[in-house]
Amino acid sequence: MPELSANGLDIHYTTEGDGPPLVLLHAATSSATEDWAAQRPVLRQHFRLYMPDARGHARTRWDTDNGWDRAMLVQDLAAFVDGLGLEHFHVAGLSMGGGTALAYAMRQPERLRSAVIAAAGVEKEPRASVARRLMDPERAEREDPAWAASMARRHDLVQGPGAWRKLLAAIRDDTIAAPMPTPEDLRLARIPILLAYGDRDPWVPLEQAVKLRRQLPDARLFVSP
User: Fold this and answer.
1) What is the mean pLDDT of the chain?
2) Across-strand partners of 222?
3) Rounded to an integer, what distance in angstroms lies between the CA atom of residue 49 and that of residue 91?
4) Which of 54, 56, 150, 214 has the smallest number of CB atoms closer than 10 Å to its CB?
5) Where are the beta strands (DSSP E) in the chain?
6) Of the candidates 105, 74, 70, which has an alpha carbon nearest to the alpha carbon of residue 189?
7) For residue 117, which of 197, 14, 37 has the smallest C-alpha distance?
């Protein structure tokens, strides 16, 4: 599987399919090939898929002791598509990846054909409170050992023993501290956007998804039971 040197990283990614380019961005603590596994067989019939591992995740090596925040992920996406020579492309992101895609759309809408934003929050609460409660490495090992073991298998082989613990804590801290986009920021995302949310998502209440749709210039909202 290929790697691309961009923004000081060797970004590991998977590519498949044929057609217009579509970049798939995964959720926190996961990887693109896992998060988009159910959709890949259909999407690759219509698009050329590019599925990068985010910094510190899976095979894209990064020591979170050197810093980790969402702004880095947006810079990584910009450098990744530049390195691939993708002048225009579609993007789809889940949760953390959706936040990255939306932030990129606010900064460089002229590069994007469209975006799918799934389960991404743009308000501080309840995201910060949920992250503070759930994204604690000790709690994960104590109360959800299967999840802790899956993160260790996914990340530690390349990132180093125990790296998943540092990554989880770094994501939690950034979720609590990161600034949220303003209504003025959101109006800059002048591209067709499909918002996809669950009706009982503990991270992003449905009313926040409805509010986000109203703030974006060209958005539709899909709600899944």
Assistant:
1) 97
2) 196
3) 10
4) 214
5) 3-6, 9-17, 21-25, 48-52, 89-94, 112-118, 193-198, 219-224
6) 105
7) 197
DSSP bridge pairs for 89 = 112
pLDDT at 88: 98
The CA radius of gyration of the chain, in Å to the nearest whole number, is 17
Contacts of 156 (CB under 8 A, 6+ apart): 162, 163, 164
Q: What angle do CA 87, 93, 99 make, to 5 degrees?
A: 95
Take residue 208 and report the two structure tokens written for it.
């926040």
Please, which residues have CB within 8 angstroms of residue 125's CB and are 6 or more apart in sequence?
none
Predicted pLDDT at 223: 98
Q: pTM, whole model, 2 decimals?
A: 0.97
Q: In the prediction, which pLDDT does 1 show?
A: 72
